[in-house]
Amino acid sequence: MRFFRTKNRRERLHHIMPRTREALLARREHLEKRRTKRGIAVKGDHVVGHLDGSRMGEFKSAWKNVCKACGLDDLHFHDNRHTYCSSIVLAGGKLAMAGALIGHKDLRMTKRYTNLEELQDNPAQERLAQYYAKAGNSD
After folding, report:
1. Range list of H helices, the chain
2. What angle do CA 100, 86, 6 make, to 5 degrees?
3. What are phi and psi of 12, to 5 degrees?
4. How confident is the model over 28-70, as pLDDT tens digits?
5. Under 8 Å between Cβ of 67 and 73
6. Angle between the N-to-C axes of helices 77-90 and 59-69, in degrees from 0 to 180, rounded to the nearest 10
């Protein structure tokens, strides 16, 4: 998948995960059926856009409509960026790689997105809890 209009003005390429590919193919099939039924000519190749494939004015509106059509009313696009960053790092990727994939220029913003402190095991905190549990049982 090619992203060419990004926040940091850098073009980037992403490999598409199998489930994402399936969803995009299902979306294309859905669009083709609706276009055929309504006799709509294709003017553009935007996946999330108007029915004729032309670009919508604002991505947030398009995202909101797609989520609503899929029954995902509480899904926020921005939250997915955070989850994506965290997943890259938890899967063994480097923080710099996560930043590059979502289009950040510096690592400070990527660190804010990853929220790893909440997701990773904290052995020191677990040992401290065990210590306090033992101390409470000594009475």
Report:
1. 18-38, 59-69, 77-90, 95-102, 107-114, 116-119, 123-137
2. 30
3. -145, 155
4. 899 899 999 999 999 988 777 788 988 877 767 777 777 788 8
5. yes
6. 80
